[in-house]
Amino acid sequence: MKIYKGRPQDSSHIIQPEEDAVYDFLEKLGIEFQTLIHPAAFTMEECEKVRREIGIPFFKNLFLTNKQQTQFYLLITPHDKQFKTKYLSSQIGCSRLSFASPKHMKDLLNILPGAVSPMGLIHDKQKRIKFLIDKDLSKVDVYACHPCVNTASIILSFSDLISKVIPATDHMVTWVELPSGE
Predict the structure, then answer these.
(1) Longest CA pairwise span in the chain (Å)
(2) Which of 32, 98, 145, 179 is deepest in the core (most CB within 10 A)?
(3) What is the pLDDT of residues 34-43, one digit of tens each?
(4) What is the C-alpha to C-alpha distance for residues 112 and 110, in angstroms, rounded to an integer?
(5) Cα separation of 94 and 137, whole Å?
(6) Confidence (pTM)
């Protein structure tokens, strides 16, 4: 694994177009970030290895939809919190939530499974996705997520994510409260 200040600067990591768009977006906003290049991380266990390398908490980024597949939600929650749709459904007024399909991920976020990230909101030009964050993350200082590919992770301040990145995508943050356990 190798870490860079900003975008990766050598040819050992081939930057994909959707990843390059994220770096361009962050640089245009003047956001300071680091990039960790790592083996593809598809599972929570693989993400845990990356988290240990950078020494910060990691999160679940869940892409959800209603039964009719007409409403879409991107939820960030602590990685160790069990997710049950009934608690979220009641808060957002949407019954029967489920995980969105890989096709919707690609069409709306320009992301494939294993790389879900709020950085994908830069591709949601029609503003079809509602961005949700678990209130337990309100005190987080540093945030890491994939730059639309799962072979890299970007590290930035959570404050920059909330106050600069998300508003620049023309999305709003909706805070939700999910229980820690039953």
Answers:
(1) 48
(2) 145
(3) 998 887 766 6
(4) 7
(5) 22
(6) 0.90
Span 31-64, pLDDT tens digits: 999 998 887 766 667 767 767 777 777 788 999 9
Percent of the chain residues past pLDDT 90, beyond the cut:
58
- DSSP label at residue 14: P
Closest CA to 25 of 166, 144, 173: 166
Q: Could you tell me where the beta strands, DSSP code E, fall in the chain?
A: 2-5, 34-37, 59-65, 72-78, 98-99, 129-134, 142-145, 152-157, 173-176
Please report, to the nearest 10 degrees, the dihedral formed by the alpha carbons of residues 144, 97, 123, 56 taken in order: 0
Rounded average pLDDT over 100-127: 94
Burial class from Cβ neighbours inside 10 Å (0-12, 13-18, 19+) for residue 166 reads middle
Express the helix, strand and coil content of the chain in percent, nearest 5 each: 35, 25, 45
Distance CA 151, CA 83 (A): 25
